[in-house]
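Model it.
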Amino acid sequence: MAPTLAITPLANTSPTTAAEMSLCRLRAGLSMCAAADDWVIHDPRLWLGKAYHSLLERVRIEPAETDPERVWDSEISAAVRLASGHQFDRRYGDPVRWPSYFLIRQRALSAAASLRLKALPSDRRLPNGAAGPIRSGTEKKLVARAGKLIGRPDRFDRTSVTDYKSNLPDATTPLGSEILERYRRQIRIYAAIIAEVLGFWPKKGIIAGPSDTSIKFDLDPSECNAEADRAVKDLDDWNGALSSARDALHFANPSAPSCQNCRFQLVCPAFWAWLGTMPGLVRTPGATAAAAGRLKAVQLGNDGDLQTVTLSNAISTLPGACEFSMVTRQSIHGDAFASPPGTDYRIVGAGFRRDGRLSAEVATVLVPTQQIPEVSLWTGGAAHD
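Modeled.
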């Protein structure tokens, strides 16, 4: 059994945590629990986006001294090292096989080259060598609202705040519109933090995707301050709810909008309890599937790596599936033969076949339930399961 994931009172919040709190209290707590990240599989496109922005920031600071290809390779190597130490992320292996790797790399190098041509002498230093006022930054920690609000904007300057996302939802769908509004709220909070700490208001918010796509919107100071104040109030309310919660099940707010794209599905007890009461969820384009059941059989494929895993007594986001089989790879998803029949399993991040059945993708996680850590709430020095 893995160590317990302890949800503890929070001294501060962030734009990202504020968005999580608006969806589900437990989801917000897990997002601030470092150990919970070990049970989340991440999207390589996010690593590519961070490398993209880190490269451009280096070029902005030192345009003449920066070798774009060397910086890119260094950033990617750092991401690979982190992934190799993660139980799920290590499956991604060679970065050139990450989605859109060459496309984003080429765009990053092209953007860096353009920046170098346009570069002006740095204004980060005064003539006497003293540090000048901060006018821009990448993932710079900023603390506002008496320490209760902390932000690390992906990228900001005097004109805009950019938040990088691994993908952009379809704004024409109700769910996509809702997600984009959460992204806008995060950027408004970043802008309020920047204004309080650095003394200037960025005029534009930019939600940037991985393939050179972006959504821009105006930033109104009164709206931004209101969002920041709301985030601080939500933090106080969250701590109050934590102190009175009986257990993790009652602390959560499970629902289709908050659960279907939640990265903590695997470890969340409330999600599985809620899913057991549902006849299945309406499938949202782009959403992955989750399922739990009892291992009935495992059949080895001809290549010695493929394995067909059959679960019975299943609950799933797929309507009407009480038993199903899914073809997985031992080298990616683990050796199901190591578990005896009757072992309870959880599956998250599964895809859909054209015939409606579940399929194992690279990002699909299949884990025996007994290996998954429990979630406990810590209040007043006591833990409650």
